Amino acid sequence: MNVQRPGIGEWYRLRGGESLEVVAFDEAEGTIEVQYFDGTVEEFDLDDWRSQRATGAIEEAEAPEDWSGSVDFEPEDGRADADPIADDRQLRADRLDDLDLFE
Protein backbone atom coordinates (compact mmCIF):
# COMPACT_ATOMS: atom_id res chain seq x y z
CA MET A 1 0.00 0.00 0.00
CA ASN A 2 1.39 3.39 -1.01
CA VAL A 3 0.82 5.81 1.89
CA GLN A 4 0.67 9.46 0.85
CA ARG A 5 2.38 12.12 2.89
CA PRO A 6 0.03 13.77 5.39
CA GLY A 7 -1.25 17.27 4.77
CA ILE A 8 -1.39 19.93 7.44
CA GLY A 9 -4.96 20.27 8.68
CA GLU A 10 -5.92 16.69 7.80
CA TRP A 11 -7.67 14.64 10.47
CA TYR A 12 -6.99 11.01 11.35
CA ARG A 13 -8.28 8.51 13.89
CA LEU A 14 -6.29 5.99 15.89
CA ARG A 15 -7.56 2.44 16.03
CA GLY A 16 -8.80 3.17 19.58
CA GLY A 17 -11.01 5.98 18.28
CA GLU A 18 -8.93 8.99 19.33
CA SER A 19 -8.97 11.87 16.79
CA LEU A 20 -5.86 13.79 15.80
CA GLU A 21 -4.97 16.56 13.35
CA VAL A 22 -1.69 16.99 11.48
CA VAL A 23 -0.34 20.40 12.51
CA ALA A 24 3.20 20.22 11.05
CA PHE A 25 5.13 18.12 8.56
CA ASP A 26 8.91 18.36 8.19
CA GLU A 27 10.03 16.23 5.28
CA ALA A 28 13.72 17.12 5.80
CA GLU A 29 13.63 15.93 9.43
CA GLY A 30 11.21 13.10 8.67
CA THR A 31 8.72 14.12 11.36
CA ILE A 32 4.99 14.70 11.60
CA GLU A 33 3.55 16.71 14.47
CA VAL A 34 -0.04 15.99 15.43
CA GLN A 35 -2.45 17.47 17.94
CA TYR A 36 -5.05 15.26 19.55
CA PHE A 37 -8.60 16.50 20.07
CA ASP A 38 -7.82 17.09 23.78
CA GLY A 39 -4.94 19.45 22.85
CA THR A 40 -2.03 17.07 23.45
CA VAL A 41 0.75 17.43 20.87
CA GLU A 42 2.87 14.48 19.72
CA GLU A 43 5.55 13.96 17.09
CA PHE A 44 5.72 10.89 14.86
CA ASP A 45 8.68 9.65 12.89
CA LEU A 46 7.70 9.55 9.20
CA ASP A 47 8.60 5.85 8.87
CA ASP A 48 6.55 5.00 11.97
CA TRP A 49 3.62 7.05 10.60
CA ARG A 50 3.74 5.23 7.27
CA SER A 51 3.91 1.86 9.01
CA GLN A 52 0.90 2.63 11.21
CA ARG A 53 -1.06 3.97 8.23
CA ALA A 54 -0.27 0.84 6.21
CA THR A 55 -1.48 -1.47 8.99
CA GLY A 56 -4.62 0.59 9.64
CA ALA A 57 -3.60 1.70 13.13
CA ILE A 58 -4.03 5.28 11.88
CA GLU A 59 -6.83 5.94 9.40
CA GLU A 60 -8.22 8.99 7.65
CA ALA A 61 -11.14 10.67 9.39
CA GLU A 62 -13.43 13.64 9.05
CA ALA A 63 -12.80 16.72 11.15
CA PRO A 64 -15.01 16.68 14.25
CA GLU A 65 -18.08 18.91 14.16
CA ASP A 66 -16.98 20.55 17.41
CA TRP A 67 -13.24 21.06 16.93
CA SER A 68 -13.00 23.37 19.96
CA GLY A 69 -11.73 20.55 22.19
CA SER A 70 -8.14 21.35 21.26
CA VAL A 71 -8.56 25.12 21.56
CA ASP A 72 -7.93 26.91 24.84
CA PHE A 73 -10.74 29.44 24.41
CA GLU A 74 -13.60 29.59 26.85
CA PRO A 75 -16.62 31.85 26.28
CA GLU A 76 -15.82 33.79 29.45
CA ASP A 77 -12.34 34.60 28.05
CA GLY A 78 -13.83 37.42 26.02
CA ARG A 79 -16.70 38.62 23.94
CA ALA A 80 -17.20 36.83 20.66
CA ASP A 81 -17.99 40.16 18.98
CA ALA A 82 -15.00 41.99 20.50
CA ASP A 83 -12.95 44.20 18.19
CA PRO A 84 -9.36 43.99 19.50
CA ILE A 85 -8.25 47.02 17.48
CA ALA A 86 -11.04 49.25 18.80
CA ASP A 87 -10.48 47.95 22.33
CA ASP A 88 -6.76 48.68 22.03
CA ARG A 89 -7.43 52.26 20.89
CA GLN A 90 -9.66 52.85 23.91
CA LEU A 91 -6.92 51.67 26.28
CA ARG A 92 -4.20 53.94 24.88
CA ALA A 93 -3.81 57.47 26.16
CA ASP A 94 -3.76 60.15 23.52
CA ARG A 95 -0.69 62.40 23.73
CA LEU A 96 -2.86 65.43 23.05
CA ASP A 97 -5.48 64.77 25.74
CA ASP A 98 -4.13 67.38 28.15
CA LEU A 99 -3.28 69.99 25.53
CA ASP A 100 -5.52 73.05 25.55
CA LEU A 101 -5.61 74.30 21.98
CA PHE A 102 -6.98 77.72 22.93
CA GLU A 103 -4.34 78.83 25.43
Explain the overall architecture.
The chain has 103 residues and is of the alpha+beta class. The chain has a domain at 1-65: Roll (SH3 type barrels). The chain has two helices and five strands. A five-stranded antiparallel β-sheet has the order 4-3-2-1-5.
Tell me the helix content.
Answer: 10-25%
CATH architecture grouping of the domain at 1-65: Roll
Number of strands: 5
Query: How many helix segments?
Result: 2
Based on CA inertia axes, which overall geometry fits? elongated
Task: Give structural attributes.
17% helix, 5-stranded antiparallel beta sheet, 103 residues, elongated, SH3 type barrels, 2 helices, alpha+beta, 26% strand, 5 strands
